[in-house]
Specification:
Elements (H helix, E strand, L loop, with lengths): L25 H16 L4 E3 L9 E4 L9 E20 L9 E14 L5 E7 H14 L10 H18 L1
Antiparallel strand pairs: 1-2, 2-3, 3-4, 4-5
This protein binds ligand GNR and nickel (II) ion.
Ligand GNR binds next to β1, β3 and α2.
Length: 168
């Protein structure tokens, strides 16, 4: 297993649209395992391949309290089951240190392939529904800061650019 580097906003590579996985082979399974290791180490409750600069439609998450329920979603697609929006203070490993309120549908049905290439469908609500939508956004090149006002987004960008310059 290996820890992967996580891209940070405003890195333009985070805007790449990921391509569907053609076959779930050993290299995809290694990506899933490395992404899970990276997510747990961060620590985070989700991670999209885009964030580790791999532009394939793969995401992992674990929204359990005990962080012992790893889930992988390959080529995920979801539909909204209930259009009612809920608010949640979202954070992102690619936007470190910032938490802002985002509104999203609260109930979704997701279909994907698992680590063995088997298709499955799940109903998600609560944090799992929020996290899954946040991760699929990453695969589409989208970040939670895109839902904020331009002023808030600019403040976050300036602060992170400054941090990145200081580290360079
Ligand atoms: O670790 C994470 N926590 C989180 C909290 C609220 C809403 C979404 C998330 S996902 C985030 C990890 C991450 O950046 N995934 O892309
Ligand atoms: Ni994120």
């Amino acid at each position: 297993m290996a820890l992967l580097d996580i891209l940070e906003f405003p890195d333009p590579r985070l805007r790449t649209e990921a391509k569907p996985v053609a076959v779930v082979n050993d290299s995809v399974r290694k990506l899933v395992d490395d992404m899970l290791e990276t997510m747990y180490a961060a620590p985070g409750i989700g991670l999209a391949a885009t964030q580790v600069n791999v532009h394939q439609r793969v995401l992992v998450m674990d929204v359990s309290d005990t962080q012992d329920r790893p889930q992988a979603f390959i080529n995920p697609e979801y539909k909204v089951l209930d259009p009612e929006l809920g608010e949640y203070d979202e954070g992102c490993l690619s936007v470190p240190g910032f938490y802002e309120t985002v509104c999203r549908p609260q109930r979704i049905e997701v279909s994907a392939l698992d680590r063995d290439g088997q298709a499955f469908t799940l109903e998600l609500d609560g944090l799992a529904a929020i996290c899954l939508q946040h991760e699929v956004d990453h695969l589409d090149g989208k970040l939670f800061v895109d839902y904020l006002s331009p002023l808030k987004r600019q403040r976050i960008r300036k602060k992170l650019e400054k941090d990145q310059r200081r580290r360079a």
